[in-house]
Amino acid sequence: xxxxxxxxxxQVPSLPKPTQALVTRWSSDPFALAAYASSRLGARPxxxxxxxxxxxxxxxxxxxxxxxxxxxxxxxxxxRALRQTTAGAFVSGATAALQAL
Length: 101
Prior knowledge:
Helices cover 32% and strands 10% of the residues. It contains 3 helices and 2 strands; from the N terminus they run ααββα. It has a two-stranded antiparallel ribbon with strand order 1-2. It is globular.
């Protein structure tokens, strides 16, 4: 964890230091053991972008219509081309991090 934070800090010096971290233990989690994303019959390619889209917090003020994103999603379920892979989780996490900046 500390190595990842240090590496990220080198790439984005203005990034604040994390105040907490959540570590999953998939191998011992009875609800997630061996789980991965799977699309149902009839799913469309755009569904993965919809699942991974940020949720807005509040309407923006001023002349621009829209909302400021407040919640960002990441994980292999958000990566259309790389779903069900660690690479998909990594890429979608990087994407969400950049969106949050």
